[in-house]
Amino acid sequence: xxxxxxxxxxxxxxxxxxxxxxxxxxxxxxxxxxxxxHARIWFLPAENDAASLGGTGFDRQSGILQIDLxxxxxxxxxxxxxxxxxxxxxxxxxxxxxxxxxxxxxxxTSVSGPRNEDGWLRTIISIGWYAHxxxxx
Length: 137
Hints:
Layout: H1 3-16, E1 23-24, E2 38-50, E3 58-72, H2 78-90, E4 96-99, E5 102-117, E6 120-134
Parallel strand pairs: 1-2
Antiparallel strand pairs: 2-3, 3-6, 4-5, 5-6
């Protein structure tokens, strides 16, 4: 499975949304400015299953792209929930994104929270994804 291509496809889709929010990516310096809303992206691959039988079938890699929206506390929920709606709508079930000839499909999106965490109000957007790769034996 080409996890780097899957990650690339998902980030390409995120960037195409032009959400206008500072975004921190995995394994990068994460120093948010106090009082400034931002997003944090997490790439969470899960199971690699057989999508079909036989030596010439396909394997299915699945996982979650998690986007944490972090907003200052005591400013209300409207802006944060509006941003969560924009992002969730951009990752609608059935959409596909191709990166380096590798196609990733969106399996569904959910929003949870918000909740207070370390001086921030955090809302989590979980984007389920999967990709098929030809099996080679």
